[in-house]
Amino acid sequence: MERVLIVGAGLTGSLCAALLRKEASRPLHLAVWDKAGDSGGRMTTAGSPYNPQSTVDLGAQYITCTSHYAKKHQSFYDELLARGILKPLISRIEGIVIKDGDCNFVAPQGVSSIVNHYLKESGAEICFRQHVTQINLRNDKWEVSKETGSPEQFDIVVLTIPVPQILQLQGDIANLISEIQRQQLESVSYSSRYALGLFYEAGTKIDVPWAGQYITSNPCIRFISIDNKKRNIESSEIGPSLVVHTTVPFGVAHLEQSIEDVQKLIFQQLENILPGLPQPVATKCQKWRHSQVTKAAANYPGQMTLHRKPFLVCGGDGFTQSNFDGCVTSALCVLEALKSHI
């Protein structure tokens, strides 16, 4: 049985795994590795240490579907809506810009439930805290080394991690990337920001008329969401949760500071915007060094094939755009690249 490794348990990686399982003409052993402790990537949902039912989306907040992609990716939207994984966004988001024909969706169980759905469909062996460091060619297979544990061999490797992390990989992979490909990879750029999740005790009231708000007048804070209200799942038994996304200039300026210091700065600004906000029982601060793609690899739409025998393919939003449809597009392009082989 051919062994396939997908590096990255975000949306592109999880959907690649599900599509490969569905479309393969013969049985595959699928493995998905991620260096984090959980799935989701930039579609991650964090739970309160006191009540796992109290959650915040630390990455993507909602999914915007344009009329173009409503047709092009209809089967993906239809399935997620039919299963209740996505629901229309009906909560009030102040400052949201809605273009003609756009539909917005939320994930009631948190945005990582989309990723978890695809991982489950894939039947893949999922391993967290697996930080890939080297990829070498060994007897027509890929030998993949990680920070801990023994190297493992695979017939196909798909990299869906942010492009700068691909460029940091050691071993034969560094020599297999052509000069043109390397220039393209090095041209990919990302914005950086922080997200801060706040968890409150059951019964806490956060008295604002909105579920989310874009902030235009603060140097630190760009977006605030009362996350359970945004997802329309308010409950008297589960405390509210709030998430703050910083501006990109703030994220860039404080990228190398300690999480604790950054958290204090965000709190100070939040107090200015929402004075008298109750004290949370728990917090979770997330640094997004690679938040959203600001420039994708221009000449490799969807995927970049680094090697054919054996296959080594890169995918992810670095080859498309940072949204749901960008990741779906990339996963479909990776599938197309591998189709003749699987």
What characteristics describe this protein?
342 residues, alpha+beta, 6-stranded mixed β-sheet, 11 helices, 22 strands
Summarize the structure.
The protein is of the alpha+beta class.
Could you characterize the architecture of this molecule?
With 342 residues, the protein is an alpha+beta fold. It starts with a strand and ends with a helix. The strands form six sheets. Strands 9-2-1-13-22-21 form a six-stranded mixed beta sheet. A hairpin with a 3-residue loop joins strand 21 (303-307) and strand 22 (311-315). The chain contains eleven helices and 22 strands. The model has no long low-confidence stretch (mean pLDDT 94). It has helices at 11-23, 67-72, 74-82, 112-122, 163-167, 173-176, 179-187, 227-230, 248-253, 259-273, 324-339, and strands at 2-7, 28-34, 45-47, 55-57, 63-65, 87-88, 93-94, 103-106, 125-128, 132-138, 141-146, 152-154, 156-159, 189-190, 193-199, 212-214, 221-226, 241-246, 282-288, 293-295, 303-307, 311-315. 46% of the residues are buried.
